[in-house]
Amino acid sequence: MQKYFSKLYDYFSHVLFYFSIGLYRVLPGNFHRVILLDVDLKFTDDISKLYDRFKLFTDDNIIGIGREMQPVYRTLFTQYRNDHNGTRVGDPPPHGLPGFNSGVLLLDLDRMRDSKLYNSQLAEESLARLTGEFTFDGYLGDQDFYTLLGMKYPQLFHRLPCGWNRQLCRSKRRTGEEHIFDQYHRCDEEVKIYHGNCHAKFP
């Protein structure tokens, strides 16, 4: 994982940013579901309601995750987008595929253990094939892996509403691109969790 998803910043080369991917292999079999949270979060509602999202998983879903709320992956998929005119990869919501943010993760450990598809993607040759297919050179650890996997196999993921991971970071907002940024950053839902990424201040 580190070979493919930590190339630009040493910060994301730390094992901390990858352990969610294989946590199901480490925890005993009597651990069935886990919620993983970044430390820069502020809850405005009961965390049990987040746990209730597991009930909304379809039969194919193994992970619950929210979308990325900046045009990060619009940039990281630049070559793929140039080579595939009209692709939704990297486009903003509601119709695009903006990628994922792993600040809030719901892991169904039993399903992760049982999923032949998911486990097959952890092999070195699978990672090489997947990153090659999307001409992808990432640097954000596990969320790069989940984003790539979601582009190819969206059925594995339950997408959390933006209110459950309302990211506040605006580091990718550039002059002249405000309209593009706002399409990614906008969230019209009631906020349950504020995510103060990039040292952003909570409201």
Report the structural category: alpha/beta
In CATH, the architecture is Alpha-Beta Complex
Terminal CA distance: 35 Å
Number of domains: 1
CATH class: Alpha Beta
What is the CATH third-level topology name? Spore Coat Polysaccharide Biosynthesis Protein SpsA, Chain A
> What is the share of helical residues?
25-40%
Quaternary state, please?
Answer: single chain
Protein name: Xyloside xylosyltransferase 1
GO molecular function: xylosyl alpha-1,3-xylosyltransferase activity
InterPro entries: Glyco_trans_8, Nucleotide-diphossugar_trans, XXLT1
Organism: Ridgeia piscesae (Tubeworm)
Summary of the model, kept short:
This is Xyloside xylosyltransferase 1. The chain has 203 residues and is an alpha/beta fold.
Describe, in plain words, how this protein is organized in 3D.
The N and C termini lie far apart (35 Å). The protein has helices spanning 2-5, 19-26, 47-51, 72-76, 78-83, 109-114, 116-120, 124-133, 142-152, 178-185; strands at 33-37, 41-43, 63-67, 100-108, 157-160, 166-167, 193-195. It has one domain: Alpha-Beta Complex (Spore Coat Polysaccharide Biosynthesis Protein SpsA, Chain A), CATH 3.90.550. The strands form two sheets. The chain has a four-stranded mixed β-sheet. A three-stranded mixed β-sheet has the order 2-7-6, with no helix packed on it. By secondary structure, the chain is an alpha/beta fold. It is 33% helix and 15% strand. Helix 10 links the parallel strand 6 (166-167) and strand 7. This is Xyloside xylosyltransferase 1. GO terms for molecular function: xylosyl alpha-1,3-xylosyltransferase activity. InterPro entries: Glyco_trans_8, Nucleotide-diphossugar_trans, XXLT1.
